[in-house]
Write a structure and sequence with these properties.
The chain is 26% helix and 15% strand. The longest helix is centred in the last third of the chain and has 18 residues. Helix 1 runs antiparallel to helix 2. With 470 residues, the chain is of the alpha/beta class.
């Protein structure tokens, strides 16, 4: 039986359940092409887009969005379609939410020239600071052991970005130059657009490649929230430019792909399209700092993730935060995705970091530690982003904490590993993805926690990019 007969059979099944007029309307909706203006928003107390299903039938390459007419229940329609054996899946178009939470309450100096970023934006409310004072705020990029010096302190929660930067300089790929990272998020403040939208002062125009806005359906994926700009800053904020703070893969290209709205919510259909866009436009790493609800099935996203893996694209996702989610969830549990939990300034597990067998590694997420940790150091992750409630004013806020921030560190590190040359030539695109994941895991440092909490441990950028480390 072909695709159309399978759909017809499924629709006939619906006719026995729904009133005749509704069934006929739904048949037309399923047979039609997906709408170009999918509903975006949270169905009250349900966590999925209203009047919308994701459906795949036998013979199709991947699922598609099906719009339902008024009066048709999402769950009722999905159950009826799933009763047909030739319907591979019919599920609600679940909503994902950004995975940040609101806060409660190198050894010796080397010949490497440290970045001169001052750690402030120099606004009227901020005192001027000496060049190089980014190290005061960005504990997460510091070495975790060694001799503290006036120019380079150490931090137990640091991932040693400084030595990793030296490794990349040595091979002629400073800041992961030549690698493209797609940031699937609320957009990025990457360009100015009229009087309302302004570009972040700590990005430059040549850092960006063409992106897309799957929320507004246009080619200008500007941030209306701040979450995406913050995440992008950790990955590749401009470094050594005398402005603001530093980014890990600071010469990588960023691809802004807006799949979350101004409230940090996005539906599975747009997220799947965003993944495919990033793959089609040659991203090498995809960051996804958002999560669906616990145990929600998002097969259309999983299909897109498999396509990314087949094309050799490394995918990274936040594990989710206690309070927003109750278990490690999609896309972190998706195929071949690097799932990331969060740690604190004191090198402890973050109180918000969920546990599960899917966890691959930990990375700095800031905030308060889980109970039992001896350190009380609890600063957030600092980056330049939008001042809350604006789309054109910038600040370095102190309330970004969570596995969203942790995932961004791993995406930046994945770009650095790809640029460093430590992997050598891989026999296939899939082997490249596996090699990056293996490298990040094998060079992580254990925090002596159960694998379900730490995976392989806290990432170590210096070791991951060091050709001398097997």
């Amino acid at each position: 039986m072909g695709v159309r007969p399978a759909l017809d059979t499924a629709m006939n099944r619906l006719k026995t359940i729904l009133i005749a007029a509704t069934a006929v309307a739904m048949l037309g909706a399923v047979g039609a092409a997906p709408s170009a203006t999918a509903v975006v928003g949270l169905a009250p107390a349900r966590g999925f887009a209203p009047r919308q299903l994701l459906v795949k039938v036998e013979g199709e390459g991947h699922g598609r969005t099906v719009r339902l007419p008024a009066g048709v229940g999402v769950h009722e329609a999905a159950r009826a379609l799933r009763s047909n054996p030739r319907v591979d899946y019919a599920v609600p178009d679940y909503i994902a939410t950004a995975s940040a939470v609101t806060r409660a309450g190198a050894s010796e100096e080397t010949s490497f020239e440290l970045p001169d970023d001052p750690g402030t934006l120099g606004g009227p409310a901020e005192a001027a600071t000496p060049l190089g004072d980014w190290t005061i705020k960005q504990w997460n990029f510091l070495p975790y052991e060694g001799v503290t010096t006036p120019r380079l302190p150490v931090s137990p929660g640091g991932i040693d970005a400084v030595e990793a930067w030296q490794h990349l300089d040595a091979v002629g790929r400073p800041g992961a130059e030549g690698v493209t990272v797609a940031v699937l998020d609320t957009g990025i403040a990457y360009r100015s657009d009229g009087p309302l939208f302004r570009k972040s002062p700590d990005f430059t125009a040549n850092q960006f490649v063409t992106g897309y806005d799957f929320v507004n359906k246009d080619r200008v994926p500007l941030d209306e929230n701040g979450h995406g700009t913050h995440v992008a800053g950790t990955i590749a904020e401009k470094t050594d430019n005398g402005i603001g703070l530093t980014g890990l893969a600071y010469r990588a290209k960023l691809m802004p792909v807006r799949v979350l709205d101004a409230h940090g919510r996005g539906d599975a259909s747009d997220i799947a399209r965003g993944i495919r866009f990033a793959v089609a436009h040659h991203a090498q790493v995809i960051n996804m700092s958002f999560n669906f609800g616990c145990h929600k099935r998002v097969p259309t996203v999983d299909e897109a993730l498999r396509e990314a893996y087949a094309r050799g694209v490394v995918t990274v996702a936040s594990a989710g935060n206690l309070g927003s989610e109750s278990c490690v969830s999609e896309p972190a549990t998706g195929p071949r995705v690097i799932a990331v939990g969060g740690t604190t300034e004191g090198g402890c597990l973050g109180y918000y970091s969920l546990a599960g067998t899917a966890i691959d590694v930990l990375a700095p997420g800031g905030g308060n530690p889980a109970s039992g940790c001896p350190s009380i150091s609890a600063r957030p992750i600092y980056q330049v982003t939008l001042r809350p409630g604006t789309t054109g004013e910038f600040a370095i806020p102190s309330d970004y904490v969570g596995t969203s921030m942790a995932a961004a560190h791993v995406s930046g590190l994945a770009a650095m590993v790809l640029a460093s040359g430590v992997l050598g030539k891989q026999p296939s695109p899939q082997a490249r993805v596996e090699a990056v994941t293996r490298r990040i895991r094998s060079t992580a440092r254990s925090l002596d926690l159960p694998p379900t909490q730490q995976g392989a441990g806290l990432i170590d950028a210096a070791r991951a990019t060091d050709a001398a480390v097997p």
